[in-house]
Amino acid sequence: MNKFMVYKNIKKLATVICAFGVMIGACGCGSDSSQITSAGMVKVGSLNVETDPGYTDISPRQSVIESVVSEDGLCRIDKYDSYYDVTLEYDKGTPYEVGAAYAQTILKAVPDYEVIFEPYLYENIRGLFNGRDINYDALEQRILTLEASIRDEYRQEIEGFASAISGGVEGYAEDGELSYIEAITMQMIPDALRPTACSALTVGGSITETGSRISLRNLEWFLGSASQMTQIHAVEHLVKGEKSITAISVLGLLDMITAVNDNGVMIGILDVGTVNEMPFVYEGKKCYTYEIRYALENFDNAKEAAEFLNAECEDFTWCHNLLVTDEEDAFCCENPTREAIDAGRAVAVIRTCDSELMEGLTWDTPDALCIVNTYATAGNQDGFTGYIGEINRFVKYNNWVKEIGIFSLADMKGIMAREIVDQYEVPNVHNSGTVHTVIVDYATGDIHVAFTSGKCADDIPEYILVGNYGEI
Fold first, then answer.
1. What's the sign of the alpha-carbon dihedral 200, 203, 209, 210?
2. How far apart are CA 403 and CA 424, in angstroms?
3. Is 137 in the same domain as 218?
């Protein structure tokens, strides 16, 4: 069967969700005995893309438009049509100097950077206070407490960046300029202000045409009221010899959102909420996005990186999932906070393709791992029951992977080209909140990225080649 027949006969998928006849039991501590069924789920056929996306295994490279290099040579920013390509030379300067060079180079390469980023930062801050008056003293205490927990080399880099971009300006003030404390705050948005929504899929060599793993991570995040984040996509190359990393991120951010090291260890963050919205705790906590950076710099395989991050999870600020893969292995770190564990609501687990899933939750394809915004291991906190969006996404991934069977890189690209993006009648996998989709092809080491431009992701995203993890 033609691999793209599904796009021409997409209405056959109209019953994908309704055909999910099994029941998902309420599992995990803190749940009751209620169950949900497929009753009331919405058919999705009319909301699917019916156009053949025309993908191949090849993604084009874009050409450099202009380049800016810091005076000390520690930072280079190349501007492309879709993103900024950043190279930071850690072997040639101190962390503080590299951070400062990054800020100085941004201001030269993107003169209106502060005007773009500061309003986005305040939209996140206002979201944190949920309509209440902003308590800036409390916010600053939270930020400085968490900053003090960050490992020295990263903290020094953050402070170098903040000093250079602020030019000595202090305090919170929404004025189109980034002050020192605002620049510190922007470096901890996932840890201190708000989590992210995402999904991920990784398929092992037994079900790929090349015999090598392919991993995909779709990042959903608030784009900003003026879609600010789509204006400053970045691919950051953190050059540290054998500790080098490529991060798919936002210009100016030093934490890890989606990243792969030079050994092919790929990590992506995905939010998981807690039952009954447990209070946020930051005292005695760490920023998990910087512990991810440490793991990428210090572990050359996914297993050790996953074990490290799962063991640390009680000290993190949010419950979350982590996609952790390399060429051989794939893991989901189901990482709850200490508070969720102590309350009996969740346990720290490393889920694999072979892990037992929650009762009633079905995954039909061995050697493939799917992650959405809930834990899925049997006995862990259940974020499916009552959350139709998570059920829909997991069921769709299951059906699509089973349908494809043996994956090419083009097939993996096509996973994100099956649904109309700008619609809200049914929860979908590739939606209007998509910031970027990253695919790592372990057969070649190539990193393929589709960046959202404008106000909304395209129904059929365009992938470009942004680098190779073995060439950092």
1. positive
2. 25
3. no
Q: Kindly give the interhelix angle for 136-149 and 152-166, rounded to the nearest 10 degrees.
A: 140
**Tens of pLDDT, residues 338-377:** 999 999 999 999 999 999 999 889 999 999 999 999 999 9
The rounded distance, in Å, linking the Cα atoms of 400 and 418 is 10
Task: Return the number of other C-beta atoms located less than 10 Å from residue 115's C-beta.
Answer: 13
What are φ and ψ of residue 198, in 5° steps?
-160, 180
Give CA–CA dist 287/292, Å, rounded. 9
290 and 427 co-located in one domain: yes
Nearest-angstrom CA–CA distance, 158 and 317:
19
Query: Is the Cβ–Cβ distance between 362 and 260 less than 8 Å?
Result: no
The β-bridge partners of 214 are 203, 441
CB 321 within 8 Å of CB 305: no
Q: What is the pLDDT of residues 191-227, one digit of tens each?
A: 999 877 899 999 999 999 999 999 999 999 989 999 9
Helix (H, G, I), strand (E, B) or coil at 241: helix
On whether residue 394 sits in a domain, the answer given is yes
Identify whether residues 115 and 217 lie together within a single domain.
no
- DSSP helix/strand/coil, 278: coil
Dist. CA 153–CA 160, nearest whole Å = 11
User: In this structure, what token pair is assigned to residue 95?
Assistant: 């962390």
Find out whether 417 and 430 touch, Cβ atoms under 8 Å.
yes
Pairing of strands 84-89, 233-239: parallel
DSSP H or E stretch at residue 238: strand 233-239
Half-sphere exposure of 194 (CA within 13 A, CB side): 18
Encoded tokens for 402? 């089973």
Residues 213 and 347 in one domain: yes
